[in-house]
Structures are given as C-alpha cells and as structure tokens.
Amino acid sequence: MNLEVMQKILQKIEEYDRIMIFRHVRNDGDCVGASKGLKAIIKLTWPEKEVYLIDQDTAAYLEFLGPEDEPVADEVYTDALGIVVDTASEARISNKKYTLCKELIKIDHHIPLENYGDLIWVEEERSSCCEMIAVFYEQFRDKLKIDSEAATYLYTGMVTDSGRFKYSGTNGDTLRAAATLLDVGVDIDTLYARLYLEAFEYLKFKAEIYRRMKITENGVAYIYVDKAMQEEFNLSLEQASACVGTLDSIRGCISWMVFIDTGDEKGSIRVRLRSRFVTINTIAEKYHGGGHACASGATVYSQAEMEQLLQDADAHVKQYKETHEDWL
Q1: Do 148 and 181 sit in the same domain of this protein?
Q2: Which of its termini does the chain have fewer beta carbons within 10 Å around, N or C?
Q3: Looking at the domain assignment, is residue 171 inside a domain?
Q4: For the chain, which residues score pLDDT lower than 70?
Q5: Which domain range does residue 105 map to?
Q6: Strand partners of residue 222
C-alpha cells in the first residue's frame, strides 16, 4: 500500500472545487463501480464540490447502477482535477477530454503499460480498482463519508473483477475491504440477481458454446463467436465476450479464451484471454492488448492471426506444464 501517494491524492481532492472522473472504454463492473463509487464518496464528503462522471457508453448489464452525467462544455474541464480509474493506458480512456484537465491522477490495478498523470497510484496485486477505492476510504475514514449506494457500486466492481472472489488476486485484504462495504450496507440478493440471472435465450447460447468449443493439443480451450452466431442468439459484444467464463472449469485446460468477430471495417476480432496458474498477459501484449497476469484482452485482425495467437498460447501452456508439477 502506497500511503504517501494516497495522502497526496486526498490532498488534491480536498484542494479542487471541480473534479472530473474517467474510466476505460468497453467498460466493466470494476471501472463503472470504481468511478461511481469514488464520485459518491467525494460528493458525500464535500457536497459543495462539483464532481462529473461523463461517459455515455455504459454496458447494458450495468445499467441498473444508474446513468452518468450529461456532457459539459470544454471550459468545465480546464480548471478541474481529473481522476482516471482502472485504465492502464491513455488510449483506453473513454472520454478523451481528460487532456483538458489542469492535473491528472491515475488509480489502477493493471500491469502498467505506460505512465501517465501527475500522480500515479498503481497496485497490480489488487483484485480490482474498486478494492483500491474501498481501501482508500478505509485509510481515511475519519475524513471520508460513504453510504450504502456508494458501497454497492464498489462491491459490484469487487465481485465482478474477482470472479465472485475466486480469482488469484483475492486475498485477506480483499475480503476485509469487502466486509467494510457489507457493514455499510449492500443488498447482496438483489445485486447478484441483477448481475447473474440469465435469459433463457442466453442459456441456449451457452449450450451452443459447449457444443462448438475446441481444445488445443496442450490444453487451451477456445471458442470463436462469429457474426452469424451473434445474430442467431441476438448477442451484444458484451454478452459474447462474457462467455469466456463458461470455459473456466475444464480439467487439463489452464488457459481459455474467446474470439469475438466485431464486424467492423478493420476486421477486428476481440480476444478475451484467461488462465489458471500460468501468466497470459505476455501473449495478449504481443497481439495489441494487455491486462492482468491471468486475465487479459487482445485484438487480432484475421483468421490467420487468430491461429497464430492460439499456437503461441498452446506453446506457452506446454512449456508451463513441462516445468511445473502443480498445475493439476
């Protein structure tokens, strides 16, 4: 925990009357929860401050968390403090007007791809950026305020980014931070129903995944979700991407991934890579991506490049299995 940087961030928040909060494109539960949770904590603590979260691209499955602020004039940004959460590189910041802010703070838990911002707080061992915001609240709880709504935002990000607390980034600090939020008040039954109940049609899509999935020679499970499959089951890109979780429990497979045809003019195929034990971010970085050691994203631009990525991943898994006896 970098207490010195956390103290400087608190000082900057106290100093500015206007704060703009930013997050990454193709947002997920963690970046939405961290951005909304941080905004709520600041507004509860300093009601007189102007705090804006402007991003009109919220994923459909997170709409229950509520809308964001409407766009404002560029002049509103110029004397404001900008805070970017859960975003490793500048290219992935959703609202590009972050460059207009007077000063910029980066709060993130990804493996650093680049340094940006005047203040940088990165803890890549954390399970989520929401965990970091919860720890930030805990550290300065004598000064900061929180309520059940803010706690629900943060808990949402912790739950989704940790795979309901089963991924390797989960530790005692994670659960202690979660306990703090639960003590404030989070309706778990309602939250889990909103996050994890699935439509009957989507369950049929998952059944099709199990029918079509393939496994490489050394144990990389994968599925290619082409446009025809997306149209057949009326899938959004987010829904297609989320199916990577259906491949996570195959004995002998310590890496799994989903390829999603985006249908754009570049021929982009979005890739979601996941693994157990073996690190996979180095593969993602080779193919226009990056992320966490065992959970990353990438992009390929042809079937040939997709096959090459699979070959690289298969060789990577083979090497790991040959040099480790504890991969189950």
Answers
A1: yes
A2: C
A3: yes
A4: none
A5: 3-195
A6: 214, 257
